[in-house]
Design a protein that fits this description.
Helix content: over 70%
Number of strands: 0
Number of helices: 12
Radius of gyration: 21 Å
Distance between the termini: 52 Å
Order of helices and strands: HHHHHHHHHHHH
Strand content: under 5%
Structural class: mainly alpha
Largest sheet: none
Length: 208
């Protein structure tokens, strides 16, 4: 890290930004506060490239989360400058996961799950099962009545399917036979839902 910061002082401006962003990334896990200080010294003016600014804002959010400040993280992720930056698939996934983590820290379980639902189709196939587990576990934090009411108001079809699944599992959690029967009915209604053919593991076990 010191060598990167030294290089940043002598490099051309845009190259210096890259060095500082790299240094902040390396410091993030070890010392989030130091990573934040490095970012404080990183120029973000009009001459900075969109990809650099995007990386800077995402790093700012990661630092805030590492310091248990989800509100600050959400502030960085909703920065007006982010709205003007094209996001490739990888950046969309990172943005969604960071928002999900921030909402989870705030115990905004529905908002957290919704962010993961939105990015599910963008994830590599090998990580989709883990995402399904995360969505389900997050929604299971809510009471069945809350899940049911949220499902009635929800306009996004995929989220509504998730709410229905979590509600039935929560409602019948002490009656495995009833859960299996309701689950089969749910799979018939939501045949095109991502979880219909890739159930959360605890529900898969019940059907075996």
């Amino acid at each position: 890290v010191p060598s990167l910061l030294l290089a940043a002082r002598t490099a051309a401006p845009m190259e210096g930004v890259n060095f500082r962003l790299q240094a902040a990334t390396l410091m993030l896990d070890e010392d989030p506060a130091r990573a934040g200080q490095i970012l404080d010294d990183t120029p973000t003016g009009s001459a900075v490239q969109p990809a650099q600014l995007r990386r800077y804002l995402l790093l700012r959010a990661r630092v805030a989360l590492a310091q248990s400040d989800p509100n600050l993280a959400l502030g960085w992720l909703s920065d007006v400058r982010m709205q003007d930056i094209p996001l490739d698939q990888s950046a969309q996934v990172t943005l969604g996961l960071l928002k999900s983590d921030a909402y989870l820290l705030l115990r905004s379980y529905l908002a957290s799950a919704r962010e993961r639902v939105y990015i599910h189709s963008l994830l590599p196939r090998e990580t989709q099962a883990d995402n399904i587990e995360s969505i389900y576990a997050t929604l299971r934090e809510l009471p069945a009545e809350v899940l049911h009411r949220a499902g009635e108001r929800e306009i996004t079809n995929e989220v509504r399917g998730w709410l229905s699944l979590a509600a039935l599992a929560k409602r019948h959690q002490f009656d495995p036979a009833r859960t299996v029967a309701e689950l089969e009915r749910w799979q018939g209604v939501w045949a095109g839902h991502p979880a219909a053919t890739n159930l959360p593991r605890s529900l898969q076990i019940l059907t075996e």
